[in-house]
Structure formats: C-alpha cells, structure tokens
Amino acid sequence: MDIENMSLSIGEAAKELGVSAKTLRRWADEGKIPCERSHGGQRRFQLSDIRRVAPRKIQPLEDRITINYARVSSHDQKADLQRQVQVLESYSGSHGWQFETIQDLGSGLNYKKKGLKKLLKRIMKGDVRRLVLTHKDRLLRFGAELVFTMCEEFETEVVIINKSTDDTTFENELVTDMLELITVFSARLYGSRSCKNKKLIDGMTGVVQDVAKNQ
After folding, report:
1. pLDDT at res. 75
2. Phi and psi at residue 66, to the nearest 5°
3. Is 159 helix (H, G, I), strand (E, B) or coil?
4. Mean pLDDT score across all residues of the chain
5. What is the β-pairing status of strands 157-160 and 128-133?
6. Long-range contacts of 166-173 (CB under 8 A, 24+ apart)
7. Any idea which of 14-18, 119-123, 158-162 has the lowest mean pLDDT?
8. 196 vs 74, 161, 178, 190, CA distance in Å?
9. Which long-range contacts (CB under 8 A, 24 or more apart) does 180-184 make?
10. Beta-carbon neighbour count of residue 7 at 10 Å?
11. Is this prediction's pTM over 0.70?
12. pLDDT score at 136
C-alpha cells in the first residue's frame, strides 16, 4: 500500500498535524488543505497533503509549554520587571503549568525586541500552549491583536492576568513611547529643514515632558 496516498479521518489527520479537529475543519473550509468526502459524508484527508502542510510536526497541545512574557521600557524600571516576573511565575505555578519566562527590555512600539522575536518564533514553531501576560500592553502598545490572532491560528491560549490598567506604570510607559515616537518624526521632519516643523516637534516634546514632570 502507498503510505503517502493513505486516506485519514479528520481525527487521524488532526493528530498527525498536532491540532484540534475543529482547527483542521476550519483549514479545510478555508481551502488551506484539500479534503474529500466519503460516501457517508465524512471528511477524508490524504497523508501526502497533511505532510505538505506540516513538513515539521507540530507539538501536541499536551506536550507544549507555557511562556510568561514580561517587558519594561527602560533599565530604571528593573524593579517593575522583577515584579512582573514574580506575578507571572506565581500565577503559572499555582495552575501547575510547566513554564518558561521571557524578559524583554524596550518600548512597546518596538517590534524588534529580542524577547518578542524569540516569543513569536516559539509560537510559530508550534510548541507554546499558552502565553501569559500581566497586562495586555506588556506585549505591544499597538498591534497586540495581530499577535493574538497568530496565537489563535497556532492554538496558543492567551492569558491576561489583569484586565485593568496599572495607571502609574501605564502613564510612565506612555510618556516613554510618545518621546520615542516624537524622536522618529523629528528625524524625518528636521530633514525637510522647515522652521514650522521644528517648532511643532519642539512644542510636542515640551508638552510630553511637562506631563512627565507632573506625574
């Protein structure tokens, strides 16, 4: 018998891929993987198609790990970073999850942080069962929803411990991110040698710095 042309049930195919039957059914409906119907109306998949979709086998859910992700914007927030780590590890430990913790340093606007890149690679590799955050903005200031969509695609659960915002930390982080954003625009606008642009940037910077002083 030609093994590559072996016909698999949806349960067998899902196990081969390391995903749930629900996910495989959705992939088939979206045309991401071919399937046929048996005389009884059941979905059947070719092993060759399954292996083409997943050249490397994705870890079954029960064999995947939990990753805690902690981030701060600057070195002077080291105490907050350690606090995040303690909260994350205590939470994961209390649930009996096997976990690793990734710590990151950098603005919530920076998509090239070392820890974030490592996290995304682990998720896409298919060996992360759940991602645990203290707050949503610890991941990214903008664009976190895109990462969450990717997590859904790879069946990685997202757990956010605190839904509310830590006002003090949020304000400090927002000021840092705004100053970084202004710096980026400054480089572009100053290049145009416009006096009007320079005044605009200087005014914005002054406002943000005043907010920071009055916190």
Report:
1. 84
2. -90, 135
3. strand
4. 79
5. parallel
6. 166/135, 168/215, 169/80, 170/137, 171/211, 171/215, 172/73, 172/77, 172/212, 172/215, 173/72, 173/73, 173/108, 173/137, 173/141
7. 14-18
8. 32, 45, 20, 10
9. 180/107, 180/109, 180/110, 181/109, 182/208
10. 12
11. no
12. 87
The residues pairing with 68 across neighbouring beta strands, listed in sequence order, are 101, 132
DSSP state for residue 58 in the 8-state scheme: P
In this structure, are strands 7-9 and 43-46 parallel, antiparallel, or unpaired?
antiparallel
- Give the residue with greater pLDDT, 61 vs 29: 29
Which residues are CB-neighbours of 85 under 8 A, at least 6 positions away?
68, 70, 101, 103
What pLDDT does 196 receive? 56
Task: List the beta strands (DSSP E) in the chain.
Answer: 7-9, 36-37, 43-46, 65-72, 99-105, 128-133, 157-160
- Judged against a pLDDT cut of 70, whether residue 207 lies above it is answered with no
Residue indicated by tokens 């320079």: 198
**How far is the C-alpha of 67 from the C-alpha of 89, rounded, in Å?**
10
Residue 141 near residue 181, CB atoms below 8 Å: no
What percent of the chain shows pLDDT beyond 70?
A: 70
- Residue 183 confidence (pLDDT) above 60: no
Question: Which pLDDT value is given to residue 128?
Answer: 94
Dihedral sign from CA coordinates of 174, 176, 180, 185: positive
What is the model's pLDDT at position 211?
47
**In this structure, what are the phi and psi dihedrals at residue 15, rounded to the nearest 5 degrees?**
-65, -40
Q: What would the two tokens of residue 191 be?
A: 């290049």
* Catalytic, out of 20, 38, 48, 73: 73
Residue 73 a catalytic site member: yes
